[in-house]
């Protein structure tokens, strides 16, 4: 619950700090005194958008800070989900800098407005007159019914499944779109794939073929030079081989005389062995040199095929050509195996849908079972509030569609007059009736949810007399389960608060500021008397005020 609100440099407020307690707290003040400013500041610290117009003094920053006691509301898991340190007394702070930039903190940890807005839904419900239109919102109607049906855990489970189902359906749609696109290209891709598959392209093949063709194209020169090389080496008189034999013989004869001669002899022998190998290879090469026009033609054809394929696929070598072949293989395989993949994804969807159907059925049954109780409680509360003939027609219809909170459609109709026909709330209920219906709804929600704080902003507008006493009694009853703060103009309601605060304006050195103070018992008597009779307080008004307080 809200334990303290501090406001600095916001709208007409210089500095204000006020403590709140449990139970029913009342805020009163003249029209225009600044009650809406308080709600604006509270909205700011809970995540509302802000701009420089919020600053009273645009040269210094605006700070709004709220302290909230959380120990009774099981919010540890939420804090873990949003990566925040949990504190039993949590401090939420919002700053607006003179530059217009805004910062938010929870327990001194910077947070986004999204996190603040998530937190506010778990902490404070600020309800004003215009929010009675929520009653006609189908999702809010489901919220009322589900609170009474104790569907919180089931809906949380359903939402996890619904999120998974939505994800799977998106994945299926992507697969189907990809298959459709792939099918358009399949025949062409298959043709290209088959063409490359038949070509059996190898990584180093092109370089080998080009080398072989170069040899064939220069076969005469090769033959001449090989023959000449053999002649130089094996000639009986001047051949290198013969001369080396002679050299080896001469050195072998003097090798025993010195290590120097022995080394020279061994080196010559080594050279002779190498020359002998060279001669052998020259003879083989010379014998194998033979121009084969068929081979040259085959190599030319093969090279031309590779060149054509490279040009067709706009690549420069076989490595890139093989990469394209592999990519085409994947594309062809994707189409050929797409049905299997899509069927598997559809099976996943069916499995999740089946589980989701079971949870949705449990939710629907709980809703149907809670309708009589909700109708009875609403009609009883509205009878107390002067709407004796109020009737509700609430019907649940199970569908085949998946919605974010189940598979039901909800019809929530109302009739204010005896014998009158049922219709949509926004069409058949007046503003005053909507306010009383909303108060009744909030009363039921307060008994079935763990919301720490609710703030009523002049929800009692347009009512008086005995009805105002009933509203006050209902607020008192609600305050047993949660903190209730009511901004009111009605003395009957103001008198029922366990704490009473007054918003007022004052002028200091020609500057108007808004302040808030907690009233003592005597000050409450005067305030309520003034609410009864105006500025000129009569003795009877004071007596009446004391009676109301007692």
Automatic annotation (TrEMBL):
One of its GO terms (molecular function) is ATP binding. Residues 2-507 form the RecF/RecN/SMC N-terminal domain. Gene3D superfamilies: P-loop containing nucleotide triphosphate hydrolases. It comes from Polaribacter atrinae. Residues 158-229, 335-369 form a coiled coil. This is DNA repair protein RecN. GO terms for biological process: DNA recombination; DNA repair; SOS response. Belongs to the RecN family. One of its GO terms (cellular component) is bacterial nucleoid. May be involved in recombinational repair of damaged DNA. Keywords: ATP-binding, Coiled coil, DNA damage, DNA repair, Nucleotide-binding.
């Amino acid at each position: 619950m809200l334990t303290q609100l501090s406001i600095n440099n916001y709208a007409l407020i210089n500095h204000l700090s006020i403590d709140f307690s449990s139970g029913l707290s009342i805020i009163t003040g003249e029209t225009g005194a600044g009650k809406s400013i308080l709600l604006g500041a509270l909205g700011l610290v809970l995540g509302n958008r802000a701009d420089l117009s919020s600053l009273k003094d645009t040269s210094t920053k605006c700070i709004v800070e709220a302290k909230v006691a959380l120990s009774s509301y099981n919010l540890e898991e939420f804090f873990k989900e949003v990566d925040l340190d949990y504190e039993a007394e949590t401090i939420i702070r919002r700053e607006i800098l003179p530059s217009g930039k805004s910062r938010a903190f929870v327990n001194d940890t910077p947070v986004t407005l999204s996190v603040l807005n998530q937190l506010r839904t778990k902490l404070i419900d600020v309800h004003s007159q215009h929010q009675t239109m929520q009653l006609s919102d189908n999702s809010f109607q489901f919220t009322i019914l589900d609170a009474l049906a104790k569907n919180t855990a089931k809906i949380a489970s359903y939402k996890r499944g619904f999120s998974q189902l939505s994800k799977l359906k998106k994945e299926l749609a992507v697969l189907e779109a990809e298959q459709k696109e792939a099918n358009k290209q399949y025949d062409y891709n298959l043709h290209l794939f088959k063409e490359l598959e038949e070509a059996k392209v190898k990584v180093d093949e092109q370089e080998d073929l080009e080398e072989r063709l170069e040899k064939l194209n220069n076969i005469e020169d090769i033959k001449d030079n090989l023959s000449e090389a053999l002649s130089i080496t094996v000639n009986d008189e001047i051949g290198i081989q013969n001369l080396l034999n002679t050299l080896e013989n001469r050195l072998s004869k003097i090798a025993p005389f010195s290590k120097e001669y022995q080394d020279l002899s061994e080196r010559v022998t080594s050279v002779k062995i190498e020359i002998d190998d060279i001669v052998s290879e020259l003879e083989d090469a010379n014998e194998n040199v033979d121009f084969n026009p068929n081979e040259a033609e085959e190599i030319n054809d093969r090279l031309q095929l590779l060149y054509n394929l490279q040009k067709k696929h706009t690549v420069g070598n076989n490595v890139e050509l093989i990469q394209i072949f592999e990519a085409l293989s994947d594309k062809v395989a994707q189409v050929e195996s797409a049905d299997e993949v899509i069927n598997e994804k559809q099976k996943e969807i069916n499995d999740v849908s089946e589980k989701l159907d079971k949870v949705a059925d449990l939710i629907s049954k709980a809703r149907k079972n809670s309708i009589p109780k909700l109708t009875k409680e609403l009609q009883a509360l509205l009878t107390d509030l002067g709407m004796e003939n109020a009737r509700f027609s609430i019907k649940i219809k199970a569908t085949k569609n998946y919605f974010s909170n189940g598979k039901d459609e909800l019809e929530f109709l109302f009739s204010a007059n005896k014998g009158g026909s049922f219709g949509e709330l926004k069409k058949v209920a007046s503003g005053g009736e909507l306010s009383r219906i909303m108060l009744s709804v909030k009363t039921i929600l307060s008994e079935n949810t763990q919301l720490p704080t609710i703030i009523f902003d002049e929800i009692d507008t347009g009512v008086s007399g005995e009805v105002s006493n009933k509203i006050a009694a209902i607020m008192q009853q609600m305050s047993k389960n949660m903190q209730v703060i009511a901004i009111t103009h009605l003395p009957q309601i103001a008198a029922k608060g366990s704490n009473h605060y007054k918003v007022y304006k004052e002028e200091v050195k020609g500057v108007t500021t808004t302040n808030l103070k907690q009233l003592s018992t005597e000050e409450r008597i005067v305030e309520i008397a003034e609410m009864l009779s105006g500025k000129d307080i009569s003795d009877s008004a004071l007596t009446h005020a004391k009676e109301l307080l007692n």
